[in-house]
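Private note to self, pasted from the team thread so I don't lose it. Backbone tokens:
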């Protein structure tokens, strides 16, 4: 069995160094080039003091050079920390400060943000993935051209099991760093390649951003199979026609994304009958795909196979799958999240004991995908990773579920205030913390409202202000924009004299949700 993620690439190089590994924008990289580029970068990192187990931050667009950089970090024995470049500097600084990277790798798309990090008081050694970078408060210590003279063979370092840290939204306002090991990812990749039959002739989409754990499936399963990874530019955003053109023009054989992308393509009718003739399988993960949207896709693409993947970052990429057998007959029935992937287990527990078949309970996950825990946060780790009924280590997902007679698991919602909006995992508590830090805010509550349409959950904020303070919505919104990424920003705001309270004196969130719920359209 392969021991480290970078070995997957080396094996593909041995099979065919001339084969194309990565396609992104105008750049393509063969397996041989990828191996050499990552090895050279590894030497540069070792020369800058990166030792086995050190973290290396990555603030860069999703390009072939960035993927080579991730592998370079692993070859240097380090663990990479992809930072969301859509984050304002204040939030990115919290992540970088927590990760304590020895080096921060950046490209020219991140110059402003790196400068912002320096402005937050971080003393960083910056390596430029392209041309040298400089801002008002930093200059890169090395750049791509400096690597040319370094050896194309990997440095002799050990490679500890920690592969990367992925920071997700935290309910108290502080992002949580999920530790992911080589073993975690290798186990999923091994299952996925067998289950989906990934082969060297495959042309696979790379849609999720690199700080999403879903991207690790695309990267490592594709490179392990010796196939081509086609990086979907973030600039396509939710442009349905251009996204469809990308799938068509790149003759993709596999598409994997969060459901909102599929929903937009359906909404704008961007997929023709029997479109994408090369497409063999379409996979999604991260949130519920509305059944009518799935049925639309299945009718349009009768030649493709459709699979729902389910799982939290803490259990690595996905823990269960459901291969949809046929176009759903009843579009009001949600798609199941299915059965465990090899080496994983799903447990529906009610008060700590297994719920009876069909009974609702909280979903726990055990097995090979389980992260060792949250980076330097034993308390949160102990609260989320607990002992199961047989003493085994299991992760408390916060999802509600039930298993049917066939052992197929159905997702029923959340037990807490974590939501998904366009695939982004958001703790509403993190949004509230940001709003609460704005001077003049007396009280605020952020709720997710299911608007029932294609948009899914809408983030809504109600607030009141300290007496004598003027804080119009536009001003508050502007200040909050500097604290959290755009995708966390409430879409609807309301200033109230006071927030509604329930009998216990707590903020009445159901009442607020009702307040924000759109009035039903006439005739519905
Ligand atoms: P993340 O860590 O971003 O992958 O988010 C994990 C959470 O997303 C899970 O705990 C679920 O609440 C939700 N989720 C992931 N996959 C699915 C799916 N296929 N169907 C419904 N919800 C999902």
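Design output:
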């Amino acid at each position: 069995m392969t021991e480290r993620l970078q070995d997957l690439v080396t094996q593909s190089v041995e099979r065919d160094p001339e084969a194309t590994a990565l396609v992104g924008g105008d750049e393509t990289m063969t397996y041989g080039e990828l191996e050499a580029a990552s090895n050279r970068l590894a030497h540069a990192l070792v020369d800058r003091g990166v030792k086995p187990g050190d973290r290396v931050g990555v603030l860069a667009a999703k390009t072939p050079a960035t993927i080579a950089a991730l592998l370079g970090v692993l070859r240097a024995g380090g663990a990479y920390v992809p930072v969301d470049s859509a984050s304002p500097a204040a939030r990115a600084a919290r992540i970088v400060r927590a990760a304590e990277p020895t080096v921060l790798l950046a490209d020219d798309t991140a110059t402003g943000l790196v400068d912002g990090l320096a402005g937050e008081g971080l003393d960083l050694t910056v390596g430029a993935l392209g041309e040298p970078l400089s801002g008002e408060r930093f200059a890169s210590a090395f750049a791509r051209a400096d690597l040319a003279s370094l050896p194309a063979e990997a440095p002799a370092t050990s490679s500890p099991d920690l592969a990367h840290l992925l920071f997700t939204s935290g309910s108290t306002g502080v992002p949580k760093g999920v530790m992911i090991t080589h073993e975690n990812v290798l186990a999923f990749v091994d299952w996925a390649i067998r289950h989906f039959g990934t082969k060297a002739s495959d042309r696979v989409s790379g849609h999720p951003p690199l700080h999403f754990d879903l991207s690790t499936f695309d990267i490592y399963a594709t490179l392990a199979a010796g196939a081509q990874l086609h990086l979907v530019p973030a600039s396509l955003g939710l442009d349905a026609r251009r996204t469809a053109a990308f799938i068509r023009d790149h003759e993709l054989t596999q598409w994997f994304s969060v459901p909102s992308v599929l929903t937009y393509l359906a909404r704008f009718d961007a997929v023709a009958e029997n479109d994408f003739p090369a497409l063999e399988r379409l996979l999604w993960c991260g949130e519920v795909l509305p059944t009518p949207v799935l049925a639309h896709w299945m009718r349009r693409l009768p030649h493709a196979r459709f699979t729902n993947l389910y799982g939290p970052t803490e259990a690595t990429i996905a823990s269960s799958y459901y291969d949809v057998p046929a176009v759903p007959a009843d579009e009001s029935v949600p798609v199941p999240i299915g059965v465990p992937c090899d080496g994983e287990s799903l447990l529906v527990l009610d008060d700590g004991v297994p719920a009876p078949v069909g009974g609702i309970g909280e979903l726990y996950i055990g097995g090979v995908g389980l992260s060792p825990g949250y980076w330097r946060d034993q308390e949160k780790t102990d609260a989320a990773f607990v002992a199961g009924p047989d003493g085994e280590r299991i992760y408390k997902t916060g999802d509600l579920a039930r298993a049917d007679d066939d052992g197929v698991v159905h997702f029923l919602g959340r037990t807490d205030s974590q939501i998904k909006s366009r695939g982004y995992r958001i703790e509403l508590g993190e949004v509230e913390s940001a709003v609460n830090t704005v001077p003049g805010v007396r009280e605020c509550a952020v709720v997710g409202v299911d608007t029932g349409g294609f948009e899914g959950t809408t983030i809504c904020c109600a607030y009141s202000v300290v007496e004598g303070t003027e804080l119009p919505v536009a001003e508050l919104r502007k200040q909050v924009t500097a604290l959290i990424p755009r995708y966390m920003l409430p879409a609807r705001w309301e200033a109230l004299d006071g927030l509604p309270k329930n009998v216990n004196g707590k903020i009445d969130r159901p009442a607020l949700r009702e307040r924000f719920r759109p009035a039903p359209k006439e005739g519905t």
